[in-house]
Design brief:
This protein is 34% helix and 22% strand. It has 114 residues and is of the alpha+beta class.
């Protein structure tokens, strides 16, 4: 699961305070609050298939672009913002990994399912 967060001092405080609720070993990994205020930072916790990455930037789109056409879904009664199709495609194109290129092909050939 990749979680994109806005890189700002105010948001960094919220992210840093929330991570221990998910079992993030912040002290063991020497994670500091201010790291989440910097673009380009990523924190990884867990082990595949239960891996979570908290990212302050992603390839091909800014945070604002990712949120421009976002959708809100509900999971366990919580509202979760999910980036929209255009941003997802731009991100996958920019990453260029074989799996992402295959995802693009599938999404473009199944517009109502993605």
């Amino acid at each position: 699961l990749d979680v994109l967060v806005r890189a700002s001092p105010e948001n960094a405080r919220r992210v840093y305070r929330a991570l221990p609720a998910f079992g993030a070993p912040l002290d063991a990994h020497q994670v500091r609050e201010e790291l989440f205020a910097e673009e380009g930072y990523g924190y990884r916790m867990g082990i595949k298939p239960n891996l979570i990455e908290v990212l302050t930037t992603i390839s091909g789109v800014s945070f604002d672009e990712a949120m421009a056409d976002h959708h809100v879904i509900r999971i366990d009664g919580r509202k979760i913002a999910v980036m929209g199709r255009a941003a997802l495609l731009a991100n996958k194109r920019a990453s260029g990994r074989p799996k992402d290129l295959a995802d693009i092909d599938w999404l473009e050939n199944n517009p109502d399912d993605g």
